[in-house]
Design brief:
Blueprint (H helix, E strand, L loop, with lengths): L2 E6 L3 H16 L3 E2 L8 E6 L4 H17 L4 E6 L10 E5 L26 E3 L1 E2 L10 H5 L3 E2 L2 H13 L4 E5 L16 H12 L4 E4 L9 H9 L6 E3 L7 H7 L5 H14 L4 E8 L6 H13 L4 E6 L17 H24 L5 E8 L2 E4 L4 E4 L8 E11 L2 E6 L1
Parallel strand pairs: 1-2, 1-3, 3-4, 4-5, 6-9, 9-10, 11-12, 12-13, 16-18
Antiparallel strand pairs: 7-8, 14-15, 14-17, 15-16, 17-18
């Protein structure tokens, strides 16, 4: 009986890809094991968005080789350059599924049904050229999944009594741009609403601010399916740095988008990504960014230090920022994020929200508040909860109503 072991790093799409590989190997007669010593095949699905993430994946591979030198190894996914490791095959980017042992690769893995909030794969790749981002070199140009295939995935989970799914991809806002005639993410969401309105909730993983127009905001405000939680990458609150990054918006445009969503979508939560220490980010630039984020109605931040990646324009830019300064700036913005998150949560103390159980003792509300409950709940089921006490900037105590 042949067995495989798989370790996954990185984004939701990487997790989805690993599910496909896992199911493909199972359909081909292999059995998964949690014990690497038993494995005939070892797979590391890597993330190369940052140097740190890629190094961690290679470190894991070396450890697995030491533990089980005789197994066949596949290092797959997002990485810059392969290493010379014995009995290891490197499959980069779109070639990650070319594992000879897989005879039948599913379009979407049925094993997603075990998750409380399954992922719906709608798009891969990116056509843009942000100065810091290596992902387009790993994933290639944007490729959209056909509307009907997306609806089929959602229908499957509706039939399996799931209450929420998460639309995922590398750049969701590019969905449909490769079709002829061209379509938009709004076209897709309208089709989902038409087919499933009220039957299941949809959470959107991320959209850029310049991809969110008034029509899309109006749709969010009136939708029966879209959860009131939006993640909108900012990356910097300085127009100078945004231009160097080759982002496609200004801080004024970003602020207007966030404010319109807050105005029209009741009780919504809005988060953003921020990169600190980008080349030529001076102290004044950082302070401008900090003050901008402080004044606009964002509710949480995902803060990352700039990581220079070989193959990106930012790698060789002048004005690289000292690592110690990056750490100080990351710390300051993360403290601001905690403050904003707690302020947002306080608006809902002693109030009721609807949410999805993601663990037997944890419910995620529609507007992205994690609620710890004493009563045992069934993952994937929908509950009404009353928020009672703030335990941390990311967790509250509540009770099922």
């Amino acid at each position: 009986m042949s067995k495989f072991y798989i370790k996954t790093f990185g984004c939701k799409l990487n997790q989805f890809d690993s599910e496909k590989i896992r199911e493909g190997l199972t359909l081909s007669g292999y059995f998964e094991t949690d014990n690497v010593l038993e494995a005939d095949i070892i797979i590391v699905n890597s993330c190369g968005v940052t140097n740190k993430a890629e190094k961690e994946a290679f470190y894991t591979l070396r450890n697995l080789i030491r533990k089980n030198p005789d197994a066949k190894k596949y290092f797959i996914g997002c990485f810059v350059e392969p290493k010379d490791y014995e009995k290891t095959k490197f499959l980069k980017g779109k070639d990650k599924f070319n594992i000879p042992e897989i005879k039948n690769l599913p379009f979407f893995p049925l094993s997603q049904q075990k998750h409380a909030r399954p992922l719906i794969y709608i798009q891969n790749g990116c056509d843009l050229k942000c100065a810091y981002c290596i992902v387009p070199k790993f994933r290639g140009k944007s490729v959209s999944v056909e509307t009907e295939k997306i609806l089929e995935q959602i229908e499957f989970f509706v039939n399996h009594e799931k209450k929420e799914v998460v639309l995922t991809g590398i750049h969701l806002g590019l969905w449909g741009h490769d079709f002829s005639p061209k379509k938009t993410i709004l076209n897709l969401l309208e089709e989902i609403e038409k087919r499933f309105g009220g039957k299941i909730k949809i959470r959107i993983s991320s959209l850029d601010s310049n991809e969110i127009d008034n029509d899309l905001i109006d749709f969010f405000a009136n939708s029966k399916t879209i959860q009131p939680h939006f993640h909108i990458p900012l990356q910097s609150g300085s127009d100078k740095i945004l231009k160097l990054m080759r982002r496609r918006y200004t801080i004024r445009q970003f602020a207007e988008t966030v404010e319109k969503i807050k105005e029209k979508v009741n009780d919504c939560c809005i988060g953003a990504d921020i990169i600190v220490g980008f080349p030529k980010e001076s102290e004044d630039d950082f302070n401008e960014s900090y003050n901008f984020v402080k004044t606009i109605p964002l509710d949480y931040l995902h803060v990352f230090p700039f990581s220079p990646r070989i193959g990106t324009d930012a790698y060789s830019m002048e004005g690289q920022v000292d690592e110690k300064i990056k750490k100080e700036r990351v710390k300051k913005l993360r403290q601001l994020s905690d403050s904003k998150r707690e302020k947002f949560i306080r608006n809902f103390l002693n109030k009721e929200r609807v949410g999805i159980a993601i663990y037997p003792d944890l419910i995620l509300t529609d507007n992205y508040i994690q609620v710890r409950v004493e009563q045992e709940v069934n993952p994937s089921s929908e509950y009404k909860v009353k928020i009672k006490k703030i335990l941390s900037p990311t967790l509250v105590r509540g009770e099922v109503i």
